[in-house]
Structures
1.
Amino acid sequence: MSLFDQVPTVPLDGTFALMEACRVDAHELKVNLTPGIYRDENAKTWVLPSVKQARAALLADQSLNHDISPQLGYPQLLSAARQLVFKDTLDGRFITSMQTISGTGANHFIASLLSSHLRPRTVWVPNPTWDNHREIWRHVDPGIEQRNYPYYDHETCGIDGDALLSTLKEQANTGDAIILHACAHNPTGVDPSPELWEGIAQMCEEKGIFPIFDLAYQGFATGDADNDASAVRHFTTRSSSGNSSTLEFAVAQSFSKNFGLYSERVGALHVVARTRDGAARVEGMLKRISRAEITSTPAFGARIVAAVLHDPVLKAQWRQDLRTMNGRLGDMRKRLYDGLTRRNTPGSWGHILTDIGMFSMTGLSPEKVAVLKDRFHVYLLPNGRLSVTGLTEGNVEYVAESIYQVVKH
Ligand SMILES: Cc1ncc(COP(=O)(O)O)c(C=O)c1O
């Protein structure tokens, strides 16, 4: 008998469970297409050359100590992180930036801040979305209702913009929050057009809905970090009816993917306010939340990101590293598409070429995904999401053949 006998049994997290199942799968042809982790052509987690250089310099620095960071985080990280998101678009705005435990921590902190102070009745999440959005909000405040807004249209393999806007216009309430993937949407690989972003901004402004940008893949949509910040920057620079936009919003930024620093947990939360007083209050409250939850942020990964972004030579190398990753993903998309269409695989596959970022939806049902795993040892998420990062020249034909075998019946 234990006090904990009454604790509900929680099923394993789907993504981690699949990664573990794949790890222990002894089949020589197994292919892991589940995680959003960039792998190189040998299916190994890539250490970016820019990161390697910055890391070597840090490790060689005998004066480096392990003093605690200031409460908002490592200052050089925060200035670089903010510049990477907003560049010079913040005229007349006030922003609070705080280092977080990667993108997950940034999502968590903004959920905590809103839950205790803006008290949204509902948080709107795209259908589909990163599974952890729901977990984070449920964990922070089960009293906040979670609702889906329409996003992916399985017929067109694109976004149903009309349904998205009309649902929110008709059903969202003032004070609600909405999660928006800033670029390279996970899991679908499709992003709103500039016109749709403006429609979303207008709708948020008119209805008084608080936008939260989740920026986990900056650099993976187009290969260029500035282009990939365009939706966020639009929210700061747009004007409505000749006046500057009144929107206040947050950005949850992750450096896991675009620096390959998955285990270092580097991220930042930026909250854009319209008054200096509002920003100061946000800062105070974020410090309080951070003190209670983590006291201070880890510095090693933050120092690496800051070193790269503050050094013009390393930054140029990093931009090249982004292009290298995107180039390989584009090549794998083409090879998978060719492999599927050469076999006349039933289904529509053109979107594999036009989707962006790490992911594409295959349209495979959970049953077919299970067959793919059990018979062919090819691992996808149950919703049919394929992570292009796990494809290599050595396995892409096998994956195409396996998908063909599973869907041909
Ligand atoms: C959409 C999205 N947001 C946030 C994250 C957070 O990742 P991390 O906490 O590693 O930065 C992920 C990771 O997969 C993601 O896909």
2.
Amino acid sequence: MGLAFILDRLTGVIGLNVESIGVRSVERAVEERRRATGDDSIIHYARRVADDDEEFDQLVERLLVPESWFFRDVEPFRHLRHYLTYEWHPTHPHATLRLLSVGCASGEEPYSLAMTIMEAGIPHELFAIDAIDLCQAALARAREGRYGAMSFRGEDLSFRDRYFQRQGDRYQLAENVRQRVRFQRANLLGEQLPGIHGPYDVIFCRNLLIYLVPEAKRRALTTLSSLMRADGLLFVGHADPSPGQHFSCRGAAAFVHQLGSPKPSQSTPARRPVPSSTTRSRAAWRQLTTTSKASTLRQVPGPTPSPPSSSSPPRNGRGLAEAEQLANAGEIPQAVAACEKYLFQAPRDADAHYLLGILRTALDCDDLAEASFQQAVILNEHHYEAIVNLALLADRRGDLDVARELRERAERERNELRKASEQP
Ligand SMILES: C[S@@+](CC[C@H](N)C(=O)[O-])C[C@H]1O[C@@H](n2cnc3c(N)ncnc32)[C@H](O)[C@@H]1O
């Protein structure tokens, strides 16, 4: 019994993927707690962690990352406001909207939700927000509602004038916002979530799943789906793993998902509709390269994206065919969902990553698009189209040296493809 036991317990109880914070951080926290308890060896401390839940909680407290700020990432809150104004409120004028913020840290997220809902014109008595976290210290700060500069990191801070009162170097949140949020300590991976009862119309669980081992992520998503209304929305963070096959993407830019299969939504129109095509083939969706934003970027010298032949072998995955069809019909968010679902089954399909990159480009998610193109190139280093798109994105970012290297690489790939196609 020693560090390995402690790591196992952390993974079993809170789902912690030790690599997400680094084994060294865990070792440091364990050492700090061992000294604080006066245990003379790690074996003794591990025994204490096994028997004493309070000490285990102290250790967990030391390992959590309760980092947050108001209106973090902006887009999810914009998406929510749009959804509430144009979909939810008109169809539920007298119902109470229920929201849950999971991993709420020091409260910036649920309070941002409260402000978003108030600005969507929903009266106080018609919404309620529950917020849970494991970290006691963060919850204490959340309940207090007093924040320093680090909680205000966005460009538009006009909300601070509307909802906060300055007190020295801190800002006190208005009482009418504080009252809309009920904080609870709860472990998302626990058997039960005391005081938390679904169904919720909207759940935010952002920047938490990233810290979990895959098995814990699955358990967490099962719990979240059981807490959601059938047509509810789940928002995750952009760095979080995709919620997987039981959810469909409804707005890629906001990382918002719905249970079940995708359905067209008026509130999330594809920002760059793709011309429809009657041909359902790889070639058909490859035309996206020339219709997506990437191709409307500043013209760069180098290869024209029309390789003589495919750089990856064709595959016949039904899921990907569905994604291609949706893409060609201009149903971009639905195509993203189908593509992500397909990748869940076939994570090594370079062409599917490439398609996801094109779709994400069409949705203006350049960072994510780049990650997808990179994944395509990792899986197939000769993926000409993915390399061309990486060059275009690097060029757009102003990374001119990288862009030039990528274009040269694409040129080499194009020559190879041409030679291969000329061989009898
Ligand atoms: C990085 S913060 C994210 C805060 C906020 N959601 C945001 O995106 O700004 C992650 C939060 O998840 C909490 N957390 C981690 N594991 C948890 C678990 N098993 N149950 C509940 N909360 C957890 C941490 O304490 C931390 O406050």
